[in-house]
Amino acid sequence: MTWFPTMRPGSVKGLVLETDDLEGDVASLVSHGVPIADGIQEQPWGRFVTFEDPDGNGIVLQTSSISATNPLNSTDGR
Question: Is the pTM of this model over 0.85?
Answer without folding.
Answer: no
